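Predict fold of Nephrocystin 3-like N-terminal domain-containing protein; 486 aa.
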Amino acid sequence: MPRQPQEINVHVGGGTFTHVDGNVFDRPTIFLGSGIQALNQVISHGAMHDSAERDPPPRCHPGTREKATTDIIRWIEEPIPSSSVLWVNGREGVGKSALMQLIAERGGIYFGGCFFFRRGVPGCNQKESLFSTLAYQLAMNIPGMLEHVEGVMSKDFSLPKKAADIQLQRLIVEPIRLLPLLPNRRIIIIDGLDECEGHESQRDILSLVSRVSSDLSVPIRFIIASRPEHQIYSMFNEEPLFSTTRHLVLDEEYDSDFDIQCYLQDKFGEIHTRNRDIMRQVRHPWPSACDLSILVFRASGQFIYASTVIKFVGSVGGLLSPQEKLNIILNPGPMQASAFSELDRLYTQILSAYGGSEVLVQFLGILLALEALRLSRNPICDIDVPGNLQVIADIAGLEEDKACLAVRALQSVAKIHIEPVYDNLDDMQTSGMFGYRVELSHRSFHDFLRDEARSGPYFINPKLFIGRIFCRIFEIATVSIERFKR
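Predicted 3D structure, encoded as tokens:
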């Protein structure tokens, strides 16, 4: 006997983007057929913005990221879209996921669906379930689409297990083309693309996004949020994505220091209120303006650094007061390893993803040593040597390809300045050569590398590498003298 369709309430539309806080929907009772029920059984519920698995999700602190939020909303509401893809990128810990959570929650009539990739979480770290999960949300959020997705699924329950391009075409593109003209293009949010397993999978997703976003018959626009890792960065800087994408760089276009200061002040205030009985002797304001400035400086735009500090200082248990925990943060020492364990795992994860720890240590060691010499006003570094890829590779004894691979591995924690080596474009394109200048982005990454208890195999003692720099200078000088004698 065939199973009766299930009756439940679902979201199907309504609300306005600008004037509502959260998604506002009419809630008529509809029937879910066997096709949608089958789809519901295999999608990644944990990748959705309102999933219980993500509760509580990362959120923007009230009063922060307002300029970035406004810019994204304006892009979404464009009556005549200037681009079909928005790439929100930034280095680790700048708050990309929290911002995407906010946009998803305020999506209103523009929201189509979302997928939050999470490294190492089954169902949320692979591309196989991406488009089926998005198709389910689109069916729930776009009036009329449910019956078309139901029709496709009821004919072939195996669609969610097919290749990603087939899922996209059969479950999203074909059903949405059957609808009357939509008044607004729907937004799909894909967060944490760099956390999808496999670089090729990440590139495949972008290729499929590019195919759909350039098709005017498909009323969908995409917001992609990720770190600027090489395999992703290169795709966005090549056609066809290059012409259809707007870039929004969180850690360059927006000054996060003010937002981080507001966040720290509010959270420290909450900690003080919760611990009045043990903080009666603490002077106000707490922390002092000086200590707060130090924390903002060390954060270097990283909300993850600020949140890690708050979690540690505000943690319950043990015999240390919040002030004593704050002192551990402010004063380097062996106790910092426990304070920054979450941040350390992130840095270790980034560095280990590419393998070749010895190459990275050599590269980073010379980079930090040159930076130390520059800060000491050593005449060796009067010229623009710090961060120059050719100089680093020469001193570290790295082949050009290994040095370039090291640059790729560091794109999530460093600013990569690309400068043409040649005077004219033809020479540059023929050779394919670029000059790179590398600058580490975050103060906390410096601290991580210089603390052996925290960085382990990636520990760097700049003094050892300064010695190598002087040895290399001596070798070059010796060769030059010998040539002059001839």
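Residues 1-22, 24-29, 420-434 have pLDDT under 50 and may be disordered.
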